[in-house]
Specification:
Number of domains: 5
Helix content: 10-25%
Radius of gyration: 34 Å
CATH class of the largest domain: Alpha Beta
Distance between the termini: 51 Å
Number of helices: 15
Strand order of the largest sheet: 5-4-1-6-8-7-9
Structural class: alpha/beta
CATH topology of the largest domain: Spore Coat Polysaccharide Biosynthesis Protein SpsA, Chain A
CATH architecture of the largest domain: Alpha-Beta Complex
Strand content: 25-35%
Number of strands: 35
Shape: elongated
């Protein structure tokens, strides 16, 4: 059994410290995610599962934790890390518990391995991390880190008994146990971030152990695939549904399976215009042609009830019910000779059973015609109608609010002052959300003011399921979205290793009036569209209960494209048929993220993966088609 399968990771976030303001320490934004998520990522490869101990802001922690449980102390009154350790041991489903605080994002990747080795070697109950540290340049002193520990889950009764005495000091309890101490050379890996000033200092400094694993040139940016995974894990379909007449359900998402009440087709019928007959009467190999007498005619909707005998057949039209006793249909064009009331058939013209469509061949009664989550298209309406169903249950329309941020923006009809631009992003978002079938709430333009932005987010969280903003998520002095999101909700990430669209905030607004998912898109027009299609669109579809599949293909590049590894790039292109019909693609020209014309001219996006370098002319590249998107 691997060590990981024996270990549960416990993140201690149960304090009530206020040195970082109203936002819990673990929920503070840090290097594109939050402090507690950094700790989760460090612990995840070392443990079979993660649990978070928190006593405040439990919904925010749960949103960050995903499927990991968030557990408050069993004891009342913020009784310190031992109270968190108690609840962790009570929950622990494995034989070992690995603990770490929520404010130490650089903890060692081999913490569990080294602590476990010492525990075995010294037959200990608990193993603790130790470093040598100096203050103000003095002589290094031995520093014990009691919250970086590996414990046996069987210690719970001893801890319960200790806490029952009213004692609360972690170091004192450890003295009653067999303790192994493990020296780590990298003291910075155990560094706590206790103040906003320290947080800002570490935000700018390279991470001790994480920098090597970060994308080249983007040390604090999250890879695209990881961001998409986080969004997918958090999104769940809205619960509300409604029943609509079939004609009103176009482009809506089915809320439940459509079960066929009948067989489709309802009866055996002919797939051809021709002659229905008994297969046993067909001429055998080497036999002469056989002439059948036509004794009746069957139309679609007007079946023939006569039963042919040997040497007889029924003239039949496409869709007509197969007459009694018949099992085969000769297409009229395969007849050797046709007279007014006879038809001659040669050997081998058809086989027994030919051109007969069986009852229930398309759909059997009780079978699923359309699955839940299907977006109803015109053909689907026809299929449902063919079952005699006039109403369908669909998901409630998703309510999405959107607005642009920036003092430089002007609405259409306003005069364009010097240094100002017309707001194009709201019209782009309007089109994309309308095509997606959302109920949209246009909040206009919000100025670059923290109070105005927070008020807009609070207002829209009470009205919408999701909020999409454009602008205000980069690192400029007037970009407040990320900080406000951290204060009235949570930030999952805000910086991605991609181009265009590097600054992109994702999280959830939570207020007394309601909650809403937030997608803080960049301000540049092209970046808005690319970010929407890659992140917001699949998330919104998931909330609608629908599946999202982007139409990807490969094409041969007609020109060289410069690209550096370490980030994903999306270039606007034009795909066409090359020699022999093979798809080929060329770029639209200048690829600046503010050149909206490049999107209007393009019919695809060339996707250059994170690990890719420059592309030579003639190489194959991935292409994301605009068909169905724009």
């Amino acid at each position: 059994m691997s060590l990981k399968s024996k270990v549960t990771g416990l993140i201690l976030a149960g304090g009530r410290g206020t040195r970082m303001g109203r936002v819990d320490k673990g929920l503070q934004p840090f290097r594109s995610t939050t402090l507690v998520e950094h700790v989760m990522r460090r612990l995840a490869p070392q443990a079979a599962g993660i649990v978070i101990n928190a006593n405040r802001n439990l919904p925010q922690y749960q949103a960050v934790a995903g499927e990991a449980p968030v557990l408050p102390d069993y004891l009342d009154g913020f009784e310190g890390p031992l109270a968190g350790l108690q609840i962790g041991l009570q929950y622990c489903p494995t034989e070992l518990l690995l603990t770490a605080p929520c404010d130490s994002p650089f903890l060692p990747a081999d913490l569990a391995e080294r602590l476990h080795a010492a525990m075995l070697a010294q037959d200990a109950d608990v193993a603790l991390a130790v470093t040598m540290e100096s203050e103000d340049g003095g002589e290094p002193q031995r520093q014990l880190h009691p919250v970086f520990a590996l414990l046996k889950a069987s210690l719970l009764p001893q801890l319960d008994a200790y806490l029952a005495t009213g004692a609360r000091r972690m170091e004192s309890w450890y003295k009653s146990l067999r303790v192994a101490e493990v020296m780590f050379n990298d003291a910075d890996a155990f560094r706590n971030i206790n103040t906003l000033a320290e947080l800002q200092q570490h935000e700018r400094a390279p991470a001790p152990a994480a920098a090597a694993a970060a994308p080249a040139g983007e040390p604090d940016a999250m890879p695209v695939a990881e961001a998409q995974r986080i969004i997918c894990e958090r999104m769940t379909p809205i619960a509300a549904t409604e029943t609509l007449p079939l004609r009103s359900a176009l482009d809506r998402v089915l809320a439940e399976d459509i079960v066929s009440p009948i067989n489709v087709p309802a009866y055996d019928n002919s797939a051809m215009d021709g002659y229905a007959l008994r297969g046993a009467d067909l001429p055998a190999a080497g036999a002469p042609d056989v002439t059948f007498k036509v004794i009746g005619i069957a139309y679609a909707g007007r079946p023939c009830t006569q039963t042919p005998q040997a040497g007889e057949c029924i003239r039949i039209m496409t869709g007509a019910a197969i007459p009694p006793g018949c099992d085969s249909v000769l297409p009229q064009e395969l007849a050797a000779h046709i007279c007014a009331d006879t038809v001659t058939i040669a050997h081998g013209a058809i086989r027994t059973g030919a051109n007969r469509r069986f009852a229930g061949e398309d759909l059997k009664a009780g079978g699923i015609a359309l699955v839940k989550g299907k977006i109803l298209r015109p053909a689907d309406l026809g299929l449902v109608a063919s079952l005699g169903i006039g109403e369908v249950a669909v998901q409630r329309k998703l309510r999405v609010a959107f607005f642009s941020t920036g003092d430089e923006l002007r609405s259409l009809g306003d005069s364009l002052d010097e240094g100002c631009v017309y707001d194009s992003n709201r019209y782009t978002l309007f089109g994309m959300l309308t095509r997606l079938g959302c109920e949209i709430i246009d909040m206009g333009i919000v100025r670059d003011d923290p109070a105005a932005l927070e008020a807009a987010l609070r207002e829209t969280s009470a009205q919408a399921d999701a909020i999409i903003t454009s602008g205000g998520v980069s690192e400029g002095a007037a970009d407040y979205t990320r900080d406000i999101l951290a204060r009235i909700g949570d930030v999952a990430f805000w910086k991605l290793a991609m181009r265009p669209g590097r600054p992109l905030a994702f999280g959830q607004i939570r207020t007394e009036a309601g909650s809403a998912w937030l997608f803080g898109l960049p301000g540049n027009p092209v970046a808005v569209m690319v970010s929407f299609y890659l992140f917001a669109r699949p998330a919104l579809l998931r909330m609608m209960g629908a599946q999202s599949t982007l139409p990807m293909m490969q094409a041969r590049c007609t020109e060289a494209i410069r690209k550096r590894p370490g980030r994903t790039e999306y270039q606007r292109g034009i795909v066409s048929a090359g020699a022999g019909g093979e798809p080929q693609v060329r770029l639209t020209g200048a690829q600046g993220s503010g050149i909206l014309r490049s999107m209007t001219e393009a019919n695809c996006i060339v996707v250059l993966r994170e690990a890719q370098a420059s592309v030579a002319a003639g190489e194959m590249v991935d292409v994301l088609l605009f068909d169905g998107l724009v």
